[in-house]
Specification:
The protein has one domain: Aldolase class I (TIM Barrel, Alpha-Beta Barrel). Strands 1-2-3-4-5-6-7-8 form an eight-stranded parallel beta barrel, surrounded by five helices. Helix 7 crosses helix 8 and helix 8 packs parallel to helix 9. The chain starts with 10 loop residues before the first helix and ends in a 7-residue tail after the last helix. The N terminus is likely disordered. Helix 5 links the parallel strand 3 and strand 4. Helices cover about 40% and strands about 15% of the residues. It is globular. The protein is an alpha/beta fold. It is an enzyme of class 5 (isomerase). It catalyses: D-glyceraldehyde 3-phosphate = dihydroxyacetone phosphate. Keywords: Cytoplasm, Gluconeogenesis, Glycolysis, Isomerase. Its EC number is 5.3.1.1. Pathway: Carbohydrate degradation; glycolysis; D-glyceraldehyde 3-phosphate from glycerone phosphate: step 1/1; Carbohydrate biosynthesis; gluconeogenesis.
Length: about 280
């Protein structure tokens, strides 16, 4: 069904094999961080200041890596202030599908754009589980985000560890539905997060992730969108080295609360995606 790379293949071997190939020209690797509801405002400001201090480290990477962070709504103004001039983007963890109206407590994509946000997470498994969001909800939100000129970070992934074939089927059902809310040429990020791996002790097996991610990449091309695929689900230092060539980056959670871990991930992603040296 899809190319399967040996579990112990090195990043260089994956990239040089031609089976999956490096990210397409112009498609930069990307690392995202969602803070969820772990920090208060004071702690968020401190963390954002620590992230801003990574500016020089980002500039010294062997290949540019896009970095975005998603704090809680009340901290978007802090992100705008503290990340100004760093090249580090920020965004929101959720959005409403309507642009205006009697939607008490909701936030529109247009309002997020006014804050300077660039990315908006939609469809996370916790939103589906706790707030009853469906594929139709996610599609409506993804559409609202793209119409506002922002980039949706569409979360998708199977609920249970029931094998790779089932994972591909369940994940692509979610991805296709979400993309139905976007138009051709839209810029999107798909965050592949197997629900059973979120908060687990270890990420999902590399071979499993590679196969599902490859299927997602094919789906993105079939829908005519400009997409990147990142992996989340207990991701951290050491994860990307096992996935290089099949994903464009990582989506981090609590491991990135320590910005030292975040820096190590950025360095790992840059090193694994840097151009291979020319052969004489």
């Amino acid at each position: 069904m899809n190319d399967v790379i040996p579990e112990n293949a090195t990043p260089a071997a994956v990239r040089s094999s031609g089976a999956l190939g490096p990210p397409e020209a112009g498609r930069r690797p990307v690392v995202g961080v969602s803070l969820k509801l772990y920090f208060g405002l004071a702690a968020t400001r401190k963390w954002l200041a620590d992230v801003a201090a990574l500016r020089d480290a980002l500039a010294e990477l062997p290949r540019p890596v896009d970095l975005f962070v998603l704090p809680a709504f009340p901290a978007l103004a802090d992100a705008r202030e503290l990340l100004a001039g760093t090249g580090i983007a920020y965004g929101a963890q959720d959005v409403h599908w309507a642009e205006t109206g009697a939607w008490t407590g909701e936030v529109s994509a247009g309002m997020l754009a006014e804050t300077g946000a660039r990315y908006v997470e939609v469809g996370h498994a916790e939103r589906r589980r706790h707030f009853g969001e469906t594929d139709a909800t996610v599609a409506a939100k993804a559409g609202a985000v793209t119409r506002a000129g922002l980039v949706p970070v569409i979360c998708a992934g199977e609920r249970h560890d029931a094998g790779t074939e089932r994972a591909v089927e369940e994940t692509l059902t979610q991805v296709r539905a979400a993309l139905g809310g976007t138009g051709p040429g839209s810029q999107v990020i798909i965050a592949y997060e197997p629900v059973w791996a979120i908060g687990a002790r270890e990420p999902a097996p590399a071979r499993h992730v590679r196969t599902v991610a490859t299927a997602i990449g094919t789906c993105l091309r079939d829908h005519g969108v400009r997409g990147r695929v990142i992996y989340g689900g207990t991701a951290g230092p050491g994860t990307f080295g096992r996935l290089a060539g099949s994903v464009d980056g990582l989506f981090l959670g609590r491991l990135a609360h320590d910005t030292g871990n975040l820096r190590r991930v950025l360095e790992e992603v840059a090193a694994a995606t840097a151009p291979l040296p020319l052969r004489s």
